[in-house]
Amino acid sequence: MGDPQLLREVSVVDRLLLTPEEAAELLRVGRTTVYALMKRGELRPVHIGRSCRISQAELGRYVRRLEASPSSPHPSPEAA
């Protein structure tokens, strides 16, 4: 019938709203990191009752902001 792990991953990608755990899995970071990003305002969750979810669009915006931000310059060995 198919690999259950693969089927689960496909269904997570197709969801409009994700749990923090599912968002962490897609970003390949820990759940605690996702909660910290939400607390700092870097990820904006959607609250439904007492539950919080993160939209696929918000994850995309977060990743695009990361890609657009200049990386911190590393001094070259010759500069020392």
Automatic annotation (TrEMBL):
It comes from the Bacteria. Signal peptide: none annotated. Residues 17-65 form the Helix-turn-helix domain. One of its GO terms (molecular function) is DNA binding. InterPro entries: DNA-bd_dom_put_sf, HTH_17, SinI_DNA-bd. SUPFAM superfamilies: Putative DNA-binding domain (SSF46955). NCBIfam families: excise. This is Excisionase family DNA binding protein.
